[in-house]
């Protein structure tokens, strides 16, 4: 069980990586060092960690030099158990998670250490749920995957819209549409590596393809069914938004997480709840052309990614691990999401919501979302015990308030 004598509230493992450094910068700026949040940097390489700490001194000159450094390697289960034993929460950006993450989840689940990450690897999350749910329930460890742009705007945005529908009309939305109006940002080497890792697994093992193709892949066993089918792959006219829509690149992850939230909340959104994600591409022939172009490009990239030699070719066009979008790109970046929640009986009572972020989705905003998720796990009174949760099912209201207050995210109802 969780020991009250743990030295740290939060340890950021992977602090030498592109995203890990941004999380560390965020925590230094927001929470300082030696204050009410006791936290540390961790990684596999001490001299690299020292370099990151020196870099943080630019943000917090005197304080950052006090930050403790911990060493742990993904290949050394003992070092991970020792890491997990010292902290209430491990916040990890060591990815691809399917390659480097499993032993840490095991260590946290057995030692009652809360955990949050940035994985978008559905096949790996399913393996972690199957392997560690019982241990986490027994130890009290709250394990929360997908605490970045995948899938907080989707998961918490839907949770927020459902809460507002209930507050106004006493019923949940029977359907929520998540529509990406715009975003600007870039991709890191770690994210690209995680995508390739997933494609390699799909190419190697047909059972992975089946899991990834299941819209309810992350629901608890016995609850893996519902009215939703495949993710959108072709242009569709969306009358609720008066525009053509095309696929959204993260839908295959986000939709599974939102559906898992519904199941974990004992179907608070209803057993017939429907959810889908798409990109808004405008009306008229120009909108259709954009939707068709996006569908073709995403479908083509996915198909190419499962073919070994083509995958090798694609790898040449993405950043190396450790690289990612520049500070200027992150600071100029944003995201703007629109949600439509359908009232179950009276369409006139349907609600619209908007979720926005003030930095690029994948790194500037994600670092703040992950940092706040970790602090939320360490500090806030949460409504659930141990287990493998989703952001909304475990962190709901407290995280929503943190993100609004500290992390530049907005969640608003835009129509009644
Ligand atoms: N969901 C989202 O919205 C979102 C957004 C951003 C990132 N991500 C995910 O976050 C992950 C990290 O991305 P990134 O771009 O930050 O990657 P990165 O720059 O390549 O960083 C990877 C980190 O993992 C560490 N690492 C690698 N092998 C290790 C081992 N054996 N033991 C311990 N640590 C090890 C690296 O340490 P060294 O420095 O010593 O090599 C580095 O700190 C990826 O899986 C990515 O997909 C998700």
Overview of the molecule:
The chain is of the alpha/beta class and 416 residues long. The protein is built from 15 helices and 14 strands. The strands form 2 sheets. It has a 7-stranded parallel sheet with strand order 3-2-1-4-5-6-13, sandwiched between helices. A 7-stranded mixed sheet has the order 8-9-10-7-11-12-14. A hairpin with an 8-residue loop joins strand 11 (334-342) and strand 12 (351-357). Helix 3 crosses helix 5, helix 5 runs parallel beside helix 6 (122-139) and helix 7 (152-169) packs across helix 15 (391-406). The model has no long low-confidence stretch (mean pLDDT 95). Bound molecules: NADP nicotinamide-adenine-dinucleotide phosphate. Residues 14, 16-20, 43-45, 48, 73-75, 93-97, 100, 118, 120, 148-150, 188-191, 194, 321-322, 324, 362-363, 366 line the site of NADP nicotinamide-adenine-dinucleotide phosphate.
Short description:
This protein has 416 residues and is of the alpha/beta class.
Biggest sheet strand line-up: 3-2-1-4-5-6-13
Instruction: Catalogue the unreliable spans.
Output: none
Q: What does the overall shape look like? A: globular
* CA gyration radius, whole angstroms: 21 Å
The overall average pLDDT, rounded, is: 95
Structural class by sheet pairing and helices: alpha/beta
Element layout with pairings:
Elements: E1 8-13, H1 18-31, E2 39-43, H2 46-56, E3 69-71, H3 77-85, E4 87-92, H4 97-100, H5 102-111, E5 114-117, H6 122-139, E6 142-144, H7 152-169, E7 175-184, H8 189-204, H9 206-213, E8 236-238, E9 243-246, H10 251-264, E10 274-280, H11 284-305, H12 308-315, H13 327-332, E11 334-342, E12 351-357, H14 361-379, E13 387-389, H15 391-406, E14 409-415
The chain binds NADP nicotinamide-adenine-dinucleotide phosphate.
């Amino acid at each position: 069980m969780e020991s009250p004598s743990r030295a740290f509230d939060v340890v950021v493992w992977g602090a030498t990586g592109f995203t890990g450094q941004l999380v560390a910068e965020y925590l230094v700026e927001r929470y300082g060092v030696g204050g009410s949040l006791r936290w540390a940097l961790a990684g596999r390489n001490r001299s690299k960690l020292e370099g990151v700490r020196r870099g943080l001194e630019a943000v917090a000159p005197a304080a950052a030099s006090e930050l403790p450094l911990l060493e742990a390697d993904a290949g050394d289960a003992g070092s991970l158990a020792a890491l997990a034993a010292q902290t209430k929460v491990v916040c990890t950006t060591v990815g691809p998670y399917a390659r480097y993450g499993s032993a840490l989840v095991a260590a946290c689940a057995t030692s009652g250490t809360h955990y949050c990450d940035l994985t978008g690897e559905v096949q790996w999350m399913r393996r972690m749920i199957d392997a560690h749910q019982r241990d986490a329930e027994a130890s009290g460890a709250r394990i929360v995957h997908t605490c970045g742009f995948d899938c907080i705007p989707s998961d918490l945005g839907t949770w927020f819209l459902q809460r507002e529908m209930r507050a106004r009309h006493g019923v949940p939305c029977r359907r929520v549409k998540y529509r990406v109006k715009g975003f600007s940002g870039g991709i890191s080497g770690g994210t690209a590596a995680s995508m390739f890792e997933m494609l390699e697994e799909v190419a190697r093992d047909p059972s992975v393809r089946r899991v990834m193709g299941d819209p309810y892949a992350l629901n608890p066993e016995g609850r893996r069914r519902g009215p939703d089918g495949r993710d959108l792959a072709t242009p569709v006219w969306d009358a609720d938004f008066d525009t053509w829509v095309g696929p959204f690149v993260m839908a295959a992850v986000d939709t599974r997480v939102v559906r898992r939230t519904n199941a974990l909340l004992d179907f608070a959104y209803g057993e017939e709840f429907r959810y889908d994600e798409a990109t808004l591409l405008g009306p008229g022939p120009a909108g259709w052309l954009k939707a068709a172009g996006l569908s073709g490009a995403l479908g083509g990239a996915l198909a190419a990614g499962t073919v070994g030699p083509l995958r090798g070719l694609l790898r040449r066009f993405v950043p190396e691990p450790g690289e990612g979008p520049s500070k200027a790109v992150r600071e100029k970046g944003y995201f703007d999401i629109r949600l439509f929640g359908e009232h179950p009986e009276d369409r006139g009572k349907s609600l619209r919501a908007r979720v926005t972020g003030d930095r690029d989705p994948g790194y500037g905003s994600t670092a703040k979302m992950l940092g706040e998720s970790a602090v939320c796990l360490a500090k806030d009174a949460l409504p659930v015990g141990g287990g493998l949760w989703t952001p909304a099912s475990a962190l709901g209201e407290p995280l929503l308030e943190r993100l609004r207050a500290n992390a530049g995210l907005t969640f608003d109802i835009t129509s009644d």
